[in-house]
Design goal:
Radius of gyration: 30 Å
Number of domains: 5
Strand content: 15-25%
Number of helices: 25
CATH class of the largest domain: Alpha Beta
Largest sheet: 6 strands, antiparallel
Shape: globular
Strand order of the largest sheet: 1-2-3-6-5-4
Number of strands: 26
CATH topology of the largest domain: Rossmann fold
Length: 743
């Protein structure tokens, strides 16, 4: 077989077994590990940092299908350099490698020679003197940052933070307290602890909180994986994306947003959704109208995962009284941003593939569940200033045009009236939209189409396809791609534009959407019309009503949040057009993710409407990754990474997967016999002995039993071809499942 590291050459593997143990995990009970002289695919080890060494083999990553860890023989340097961190003139810490394993030791100076051990004097904090000196400056804000490990501390200091780290020993709360007391006495008013992404990080954070409490010092705990989602296990600022200045800039934003908690509690940096008064009335699945399993996927999306901190806080504040959750609220704001980006603003995943950063998005909810208020608060109000400016500009142009042409009596002798270029458009038909987009093309401006009831637009498109010109559906499909348009009519003459940037926001009721999708096409989306939309269900729960009068503080906070969102919208409208490229890590994740969707889409048993959706997932995810990256650009400015990073792509693909699962529930489709048999065989193939036809027949129902051994063999071939399992034996044909089916 060809391996990811072999450059296409064939590598001969032998399976693990009783006489051939896996050199990494020592597995002998089954053949799940694969071994060759230059590469080991270990079934047991996938969750490690690149470079970790096990039994003389170095971890280099995870296989493309995610089932095995890749290990190559570790070739350590003859003598790896020791790293020395000085704590004082007589105290230091040493980092070194022994047998391929990272070790540390503390030393103290005795009679000019370094001796092992901490010695009689307590170790200070790493960079303690620098922190004490920094706190003495007049412009000090009193904030000190604490990281796990000297390396992370040094990176933070390079990025301009006042940072310290504990020594590698003596870390109990009682031993930390005197160090924290010295910081407090020097003027430290707040300690921010950045916990590594692992259990050890949580344990040390707890010790830090207790130590700060003993010293009477206010402490805030940030989890590194909340600041930089997607970090590897054990990761922190040293594994975060972007230059050091970008990493520390993001931490400062978090510090400005987060409250100053008391010392005692360990407050997570994540923002769990506030409890609702109706929480006991219905489960998440009931409020969304989906299965419990699908509803559980929403829990992964928090405001701070979806948006940068300041933007996230503003969106959360503005939607606080609405029934929305983080996913529906953030996507509503993001589609509004996407509709304000100049023509030519695109996201590129490779040399030959790029798409406009626009979105076709619909909120799905029953009547009366506050769809329109969410649209007003998160789409229309942020752009209100832009719309006002556009109207005033058009009014001035019209007054000037009338003044210039007041003496021309014949209409046909006057030049054309100036046309208004508006960021938002709520009512149109195919012809008027084409006229409008001609003007937008001339000025490079985008447009956001808004429909309170999307069903009207979709039914009009459907009716036009049946008994009209058929132009409306074709136009809808082309606008999504940002394509140009040329039309010639006898009365209207020539309508043409070379490019466009169109986003679409609408609201629709679940049963109306179900009826449209499963109408005359019988669930067949041959044109990909439905696949172009992201349908997001809005939780069906009561509004959060407050009986008391708002305080001045609450009023000011809401006004500030609304002003913040308006600032982001106006900044997005001023961004020059450009193409944003994926980073290498982001591209690898994106391609691996889409390969799995393609494999499922190409299964003969996949219903056509689901196939269309799966084949469009890459276009949706790339657009989402682009607008998530632009959100970072709006907040961080020049400090934002140049390229779309792994974090944005991973979040975008997770969003698409979640919304795809929810949308699939709208499609009324009878499962084909082929897919029914594949699911049955795959489920039985999870047992250690695998699944034969006789076992499948014995455990099958009336639909399964008549299918026969030939159909069973075809089902096995399809499952194996798509990476869901393998042939464990040819006589009799036996199937073993390796991972869950995605469809």
């Amino acid at each position: 077989m060809a391996t990811p590291t072999s450059g296409g050459a064939k590598t001969k593997f032998t399976p693990s077994g009783k006489h051939n143990p896996c050199p990494v995990c020592t597995r002998v009970k089954d053949p799940d590990c694969r071994i060759s002289p230059e590469l080991v695919l270990c079934h047991n080890n996938t969750d490690h940092k690149v470079g970790d060494v096990f039994n003389g083999y170095a971890f280099t990553g995870v296989s493309s299908d995610g089932r095995t860890g890749k290990f190559t023989p570790h070739k350590p340097l003859k003598k790896q350099p020791e790293i020395i961190y000085g704590y004082s003139d007589t105290q230091r810490s040493k980092r070194y490698y022994k047998g391929g394993k990272k070790c540390f030791a503390v030393q103290h100076l005795v009679a000019g020679r370094w001796k092992a051990g901490a010695g009689p004097d307590p170790f200070p904090l790493y960079f303690e003197n620098e922190a004490l000196a920094g706190l003495d400056f007049l412009d000090s804000d009193g904030v000190v940052w604490e990281f796990e490990g000297e390396k992370c501390c040094e990176l933070a200091v390079q990025g301009g933070l006042l940072a310290v780290s504990q020594p590698g020993h003596a870390n109990s709360p009682e031993q930390r307290a005197p160090r924290y007391q010295r910081l407090k006495e020097a003027g430290c008013t707040r300690l921010i602890y950045v916990a590594d992404n692992d259990e050890t990080g949580e344990k040390k954070a707890s010790e830090a909180v207790k130590g700060a409490e003993l010293a009477g010092l206010t402490i805030t705990v940030f989890r590194a994986q909340e600041v930089w989602p997607g970090l590897p296990t054990g990761g922190s600022i040293d594994d975060a994306p972007g230059p050091v200045d970008t990493r520390t800039a993001l931490l400062r934003v978090w510090a400005d947003k987060a409250p100053n908690p008391d010392a005692a509690p360990v407050t997570p940096a994540a923002d769990p959704e506030p409890p609702r008064a109706d929480a006991s009335m219905a489960s998440a699945a009931e409020t969304l109208g989906v299965t419990e399993q699908v509803a559980a996927g929403r829990a992964q999306f928090t405001f701070n995962r979806l948006l940068p901190p300041v933007m996230a806080a503003a969106v959360e504040m503005v939607q606080e009284d609405l029934p929305s959750d983080p996913l529906s609220a953030c996507l509503t704001f993001l589609v509004g941003l996407s509709g304000l980006l100049k023509i030519g603003t695109r996201a590129s995943s490779s040399l030959r593939h790029h798409v406009p950063i626009n979105l076709f998005f619909a909120l799905v909810a029953w009547s009366g569940v506050a769809k329109s208020p969410q649209k007003r608060k998160l789409v229309e109000r942020p752009a209100a200033g832009l719309i006002k400016d556009a109207r005033e500009h058009h009014d001035r142009a019209m007054r000037q045009w009338r003044q210039q042409n007041k003496d021309i009596k014949r209409k046909e002798d006057r030049p054309p009236e100036p046309k208004c270029v508006l960021p938002h458009l709520t009512d149109y038909n195919a012809a008027s939209l084409a006229d409008q987009l001609m003007e937008h093309d001339k000025k490079g401006q985008p447009i956001l189409l808004i429909r309170d009831e999307l069903s009207g637009l979709l039914k009009a498109v459907e009716q036009d396809t049946k008994s009209g010109t058929g132009q409306a559906e074709a136009q809808l499909l082309e606008l999504f791609e940002g394509d140009g348009y040329v039309s010639r009519r006898i009365e209207a003459g020539l309508r043409a534009f070379s490019r466009c940037h169109v986003s679409l926001f609408g609201c629709i009721q679940p049963e109306v959407l179900r009826e449209l999708i499963n109408g005359d096409g019988n669930g067949d989306d041959s044109t990909g019309k439905w696949a172009r939309f992201l349908f997001c269900r809005l939780p069906a729960r009561p509004l959060a009503l407050v009986d008391e009068d708002p305080t001045r503080v609450e009023i000011d906070a809401l006004m500030e949040a609304e002003s913040t969102l308006q600032h982001y919208a106006e900044t997005a409208y001023r961004l020059p057009p450009r193409t944003y490229h994926l980073s290498t890590d982001a591209r690898r994740h994106f391609h691996a993710w889409f390969r799995k969707h393609q494999a499922t889409a190409l299964l003969p048993a996949t219903p056509p409407v689901i196939r269309s959706m799966l084949m469009k997932t890459s276009a949706q995810a790339l657009r989402l990754a682009g607008v998530l990256h632009i959100a970072q650009v709006l907040e961080l400015g020049d400090a934002a990474p140049e390229k779309i990073g792994w974090r944005e792509v991973e979040t975008a693909t997770a969003i698409v997967d979640q919304l795809h699962q929810e949308t699939c529930l709208f499609h009324d489709r009878a499962e084909s016999d082929e897919l029914l048999l594949m699911r049955h065989v795959h489920a039985l193939g999870a047992r250690p002995d695998g699944c034969t036809w006789q076992w499948a027949k014995q455990k099958g129902g009336r639909k399964i039993r008549p299918m026969g051994a030939e159909k069973f063999a075809e089902a096995v071939d399809q499952l194996v071809a798509n990476g869901y399992g393998r042939r464990a034996c040819d006589q009799p044909l036996t199937y073993r499942a390796l991972k869950p089916m995605t469809q």
